[in-house]
Amino acid sequence: MKRIQNIKIGISGIRGIIGETLAPEQVVNLTRAFSTLIGSGRVAVATDTRPTGQMIKRAVFSGLIFSEITPVDTFILPTPSLEIFVKERKLNGGIIITASHNPEQWNGIKFVDENGLFLFPFTALNLIDIYYQGSFKIPSENRFPDIETVHDAFRVHKKKIMKIIDIDRIRKKRFKVLVDPGGGVGSIYDKEFLEELGCEVHMINDEVGNKFPRNPEPTEANLEVTSQYMKEKNFDIGFAQDSDGDRLCILDETGRAFGGELTLAVALFGYLSRKKPGKIVVNLSTSRITEHVADRFGFKVIKSPVGEINVVEYMQKENAIAGGEGNGGIIIPEVHYCRDSFTGMALVLDCMAFYDKRISEIAAELPTLKMIKTVIPLSKSGAHKIISILKDKHPNGNTLDGLRVDEENYWFHVRSSNTEPVLRIVAEGKEDQIDKIIADLRSWIEKKAD
């Protein structure tokens, strides 16, 4: 029998390969740890479209019921929808069964607090401690709650989005839209959502079954078929999502996939243009293109450590009007403090309608920059040593999360990975310069690491 390895647990959730790094007994005990943390009440449970989701959901139900917590089954549901449902229905928490953008053999669970937010680091560490200590809540009597069911939880999410856009303006445009949900939750919700905005919707890769029709992460490299389809047909815009619906990628009418960085900037373009100047928050690895949009409309950019919950924490502290991460994760507090591809799609369509421009024309108003992401295998101690040397070399750099150095024509961010023994490097600049800059930086780090 294959030995089950230790599960990978971090503040952003629990994720692993079924049968290798994730097993039902671990899910039960993690759920019991979460139940112990919240004490009592009702917890919403949702899955993405992975076939292993139903097996994991049963383990989650067992952990909740044994802890005298009432499960509220919301079935297949986008991650942002689950978060919003927990907040709006005043539940005690939520559990999302998903591996997000990871391949189909992966699955995992994310925990949501009573405010519909992912657990902040201190709370997540408490949960992990309860799990490893095995100090779970013990049922007081053999009277366990039944499972409640809710079939229309997405409606709560949709209603909040519709309040922040001009629905009539979008409907008048009758946009022809191609959507590629990659076999994820968008396969169930995208068409109806966009048709309510008056769009003519064509779906691709919307089969829900045993296998994802493409890699779930909506990057340019994974959207070649979608891009070709856009080129052959006459669409105004294309959208692609990951499996749980929190990441978005735009494709313009020529089939060009924008990638997460440009998608975030374009989604914020129209939204910020109609708001009073204030603050937005992005993480330290996010493109300067978003900063360009913020500057254009008088917004100050605050940078947080990498990670959605870190962005959210800074947004709340700074009372920011918007934020996000460069993986296509748009966060609009008017809807909810979460990454949300559905809000992103609505904002982009609203922007096109407001400016009466093609999506390629809006993107053309933004700077053209090249971003490179790479990793160097290093132990955590080795990575910290390199970052320490770099901090001495760049005393004016941002040291909030590793080191980010901003120069006039480029920037780079070096940080130790939270999940792997690697040093992560992100750099951005003009295309004719950035390749050499990152090659030189990588060469310097590798020499110092020897």
Question: Could you please describe the fold and organization of this structure?
Answer:
The chain is 39% helix and 23% strand. By secondary structure, it is of the alpha/beta class. The protein has 3 domains: 148 residues, Alpha-D-Glucose-1,6-Bisphosphate, subunit A, domain 3 (Alpha-D-Glucose-1,6-Bisphosphate, Chain A, domain 3); 202 residues, Alpha-D-Glucose-1,6-Bisphosphate, subunit A, domain 3 (Alpha-D-Glucose-1,6-Bisphosphate, Chain A, domain 3, 3-Layer(aba) Sandwich); 80 residues, 2-Layer Sandwich (TATA-Binding Protein), CATH 3.30.310. It has a 7-stranded mixed beta sheet, with helices on both faces. A 5-stranded mixed beta sheet has the order 13-12-14-15-16. A 4-stranded mixed beta sheet has the order 9-8-10-11, sandwiched between helices. Helix 1 crosses helix 4, helix 3 crosses helix 5 and helix 6 crosses helix 12. The protein is globular, with a radius of gyration of 22 Å.
